[in-house]
Automatic annotation (TrEMBL), chain A:
Protein name per Swiss-Prot or TrEMBL: FAD-dependent oxidoreductase domain-containing protein 1
GO cellular-component term (any): mitochondrial inner membrane
Lipid bilayer topology: Single-pass membrane protein
Subcellular location: Mitochondrion inner membrane
Pfam families: DAO (PF01266)
PANTHER family: FAD-DEPENDENT OXIDOREDUCTASE DOMAIN-CONTAINING PROTEIN 1 (PTHR13847:SF287), SARCOSINE DEHYDROGENASE-RELATED (PTHR13847)
Start and end residues of each FAD dependent oxidoreductase domain: 65-455
One MF term in the entry's GO annotations: oxidoreductase activity
Assembly, per entry: Associates with components of the mitochondrial respiratory chain complex I.
GO biological process, one term: mitochondrial respiratory chain complex I assembly
Organism expressing this protein natively: Phyllostomus discolor (pale spear-nosed bat)
Segments crossing the lipid bilayer: none
Annotated InterPro entries: FAD-dep_OxRdtase, FAD/NAD-bd_sf
Keyword terms: Electron transport, FAD, Flavoprotein, Membrane, Mitochondrion, Mitochondrion inner membrane, Oxidoreductase, Respiratory chain, Transmembrane, Transmembrane helix, Transport
From TrEMBL, chain B:
Protein name as it appears in the record: Distal membrane-arm assembly complex protein 2
Protein's GO biological process: mitochondrial respiratory chain complex I assembly; SCF-dependent proteasomal ubiquitin-dependent protein catabolic process
Gene: DMAC2
Binding partners and assembly: Interacts with incompletely assembled mitochondrial NADH:ubiquinone oxidoreductase complex (complex I).
Phylogenetic classification of the source organism: Eukaryota, Metazoa, Chordata, Craniata, Vertebrata
UniProt xrefs under PANTHER family: DISTAL MEMBRANE-ARM ASSEMBLY COMPLEX PROTEIN 2 (PTHR13318:SF186), PARTNER OF PAIRED, ISOFORM B-RELATED (PTHR13318)
Source organism of the structure: Phyllostomus discolor (pale spear-nosed bat)
Entry-linked InterPro entries: LRR_dom_sf
Free-text function comment from the UniProt entry: Required for the assembly of the mitochondrial NADH:ubiquinone oxidoreductase complex (complex I). Involved in the assembly of the distal region of complex I.
Entry similarity comment: Belongs to the ATP synthase subunit s family.
Transmembrane segments: none
Gene Ontology CC annotation, any one: mitochondrion
Length: 486, 257
């Protein structure tokens, strides 16, 4: 009976309760040992004292090698590349923590979905080029057996950036850099613009750059779902919860120049469940901050920025949420099927949406007009006063249009230089950033995910050198300004 | 895609506490017919055994790499004999037909293309290419885009020609006069929108494109976009399916908007 019970216990697979824990009781006699074993068996078999109090299947695992805070396109991209570049199958356990499983406020789903190579920094151009290759071959990268292939609904119509007299020189030098990196961009004079796109009013336009290949817009939701599906097939754990605390340990170290600094290491991430006070401490080796508009808050939890201002400890992560509006309107006489995503000199942009003469677009507000990012309410007066006049001036057909709907979304705006933050933090040794892309995160997500995965696995960037995007530039004051943000 | 394969979820996988998002793509269709039973069995096994899953992934990868292998660039031939011979060799290898300027059509006719007959045409530009039913894709188009005097290109029923491929065709804008995309399952109106670069196009066939959401409206917009071009394709009546073999001969002369 005793042996049968042991087999039964082993067969049930109750882990973590081994009879070898009784080794300490060898001082007892034979009878004592038997009674100990009987007691353990009774507690393990059903009906005994050792019942788990409640179902914990909704909680994240207790341990995970990498915890990615944020389940948007950047977080999922990092998870994908970590699993793809790991040396052995199943070597790295990854957990993605996302606070809103409906993605109602996530920047990914609310994005206009454009992708372009027309940047001024070579790193940005390379990131976009790789991302366009990724999107083109998305069914090779994200194929899951027996699932239908992904249809990104990519419109390869290109971007058209217009420049006035002052901006023409910068535009020309930008196009030179872009062509050097391999982007297919061409310059157009106002005359050529009028021939090609007769619906543009070229007054005030000195030069324009037009992307011929690899630029356009696509469905960001499809990319997100495709990544989610593939990443789950690769074995990444998902958890819906909010990160409320980091438990870390500090070490006082001395730099080579004799200065004393405090290095921190995060040991545990406390993940709080939705609508409850229940939380799970997840032991982790590496934390990746891909929380988008909320990255600043997550960084503060890790103690980044708590220190006297002007020092490395006191340098905060300068990423904050900024609200941007997108309006959808209908214009029966508007630009035809060939129209690219047009970005005007005044900052107004628009693109076609579908076959039915619907357009969507918006404008980045100036610093004074910045709306309050408390909620995602849309300000329709902004369209009336700021967007429409400039739109109608540039495209006369838009004088008569009818706004159908509008929505708002967040930019994870980097107030320092509007470019992404990638790589580890110098003091919190195991927190890596993948955030702050200020409106062009979606289009660079596949490439940035790969860069962060390389940094985590190899310790340095291997394919695209993003050393210019490290955190340390905030302390050193070296801005990598991108001139083509809108 | 003509008809996306439904994804079958026989056993709800353990999602580790994930609740499906409200906008999740869910397409589980109850399978009918015995030809689905084999697929169901395979999927059942793949859900439970890593080996079966790995084997199926491997077979999928092999299929994909086969297409890539057929579309590699013949850089050696291009350097040695020029772009025209390289392009012609590529087309013939894929199973299409090529016409040099002033010559007759050269068909591939199943056997390996004889390189000797091509070598005599090193300096003769290629005028027309008929790549119907060929497995040409984005990378393979490199070989065709080097043919700068190409006047007529037929990509009928090519399974791998999609919107990305169409976005590359602007490089042939100076010479291309005739283009046929009839029956390509992956071409949609988004790719057709980038044909506006082809200002010399006189004949465009966009009939029987299953991925185009609204063929009648697309035809009108294409005619507006390319005023000098004769656009053949969708019937005005939506319900009728246009026949892929016999293209509609009605010459609807485009009226500029």
């Amino acid at each position: 009976m005793f042996r049968g019970a042991v087999h039964l216990c082993a067969g049930r697979g109750h882990l973590g309760r081994r009879l070898s824990t009784l080794r300490g009781g060898s001082a007892l006699g034979w009878a004592g040992k038997v009674s100990e074993i009987k007691k353990t068996l009774q507690s393990v078999l059903p009906g005994g004292a050792w019942n788990s109090l409640y179902d914990t299947s909704h909680l994240p695992p207790e341990q995970s090698d990498v915890v990615i805070v944020g389940g948007g396109v950047l977080g999922l991209s990092v998870a994908y590349w970590l699993k793809r570049l790991e040396k052995q199958r199943g070597a790295i356990r990854v957990l993605v923590v996302e606070q809103d499983h409906t993605y109602s406020q996530a920047s990914t789903g609310l994005s206009v979905g454009g992708i372009r190579q027309q940047f001024s920094l070579p790193e940005n151009i390379q990131l976009s080029l790789f991302s366009v290759n990724f999107l083109r071959n998305i069914n090779d990268y994200l194929a899951v057996v027996d699932d239908p292939p992904l249809d990104l609904q990519f419109n390869p119509s290109g971007y058209l950036l217009l420049a006035s007299e002052e901006g023409a020189a910068i535009l020309e030098s930008n196009v030179k850099v872009q062509r050097q990196e391999g982007a297919k961009v061409c310059l157009m004079s106002p005359e050529q613009l009028r021939n090609k796109f007769p619906w543009i009013n070229t007054e005030g336009v000195a030069l324009a750059s037009y992307g011929l290949e690899g630029e356009g817009w696509f469905d960001p939701w499809c990319l997100l779902q495709g990544l989610r599906r593939k990443v789950q097939a690769m074995g990444v754990h998902f958890c819906h919860g909010e990160v409320t605390r980091f438990v870390s340990s500090s070490n006082r170290m001395e730099t080579t120049s004799g200065e004393e600094i405090t290095l921190k290491r995060i040991h545990e991430v406390h993940v709080k469940m939705d609508h409850s006070v229940e939380y799970q401490p997840v032991e982790c080796a590496i934390v990746i901050n891909a929380a988008g508009a909320w990255s600043g808050r997550v960084a503060e939890l890790a103690g980044i920025g708590k220190g006297p201002p002007g020092t490395l400890q006191g340098t905060k992560l300068p990423v904050e949420p900024r609200k941007r509006y997108v309006y959808v309107w209908h214009c029966p006489q508007g630009p035809g099927l060939e129209s690219p995503l047009v970005a005007d000199t005044s900052g107004v942009y628009f693109r076609r949406d579908g076959l039915g003469n619907n357009y969507l677009g918006g404008c980045s507000p100036t610093e004074e007009e910045e709306p309050d990012p408390e909620n995602l309410e849309v300000d329709h007066d902004f369209f009336q006063n700021k967007v429409w006049p400039r739109l109608a001036w540039r495209i006369p057909a838009f004088e008569s249009l009818k706004v159908r709907s509008a929505w708002a979304g967040y930019y994870d705006y980097n107030t320092f230089d509007q470019n992404g933050v990638v790589g580890p933090h110098p003091l919190v040794a195991n927190m890596y950033f993948a955030t702050g892309f200020s409106g062009h995160g979606l289009q660079q997500a596949p490439a940035v995910g790969r860069a962060v995965a390389e940094m985590v696995l190899e310790g340095r960037f291997q394919t695209i050198n993003l050393n210019a995007f490290l955190f340390s530039r905030f302390f050193l004051g070296e801005k990598v300004q991108e001139h083509n943000i809108f | 895609m003509a008809a996306p394969r439904a994804s079958l979820n026989l056993v709800a996988p353990v999602w580790n506490g994930v609740t499906k998002s409200i906008r999740d793509l869910s397409s589980s269709v109850a399978p009918k017919g015995s030809q689905k039973k084999g697929k169901r069995l395979l999927q059942f096994l793949a859900d439970r055994f890593y080996d079966v899953e790995a084997l199926r992934e491997y077979l999928l990868q092999k299929q994909v790499s086969k297409v890539h292998q057929e579309n590699r660039s013949f850089t050696y031939i291009k350097e040695r004999y020029g772009p025209y011979v390289a392009g012609a060799y590529f087309v013939l290898k894929q199973g299409g037909a090529v016409k040099f300027q002033g010559q007759e059509w050269i068909q591939s006719s199943g056997r390996r293309p004889s390189s000797l007959e091509l070598l005599s045409f090193q300096a003769v530009p290629v005028e027309s290419v008929d790549a119907s039913d060929c497995a040409i894709n984005y990378e393979g188009l490199d070989n065709l885009l080097a043919l700068k005097e190409l006047q007529s290109l037929s990509l009928q029923r090519c399974p791998h020609v999609d919107d990305w491929c169409l976005s590359r065709l602007y490089q042939l804008a100076d010479s291309l006069q005739e283009l046929s995309l009839a029956g390509c399952p992956r071409v949609s109106e988004r790719g057709l929108a980038c044909l506006h670069h082809l200002q010399n196009l006189r004949r465009l066939d966009i009939s029987d494109l299953p991925a185009v959401s609204n063929p009648g409206l697309t035809q009108i917009l294409m005619e507006e976009m390319l005023p000098n071009c004769e656009v053949l394709g969708a019937d005005w009546a939506q319900g009728l399916k246009s026949r892929p073999e016999k293209q509609s001969q009605d010459t609807a002369s485009p009226t500029p908007a």
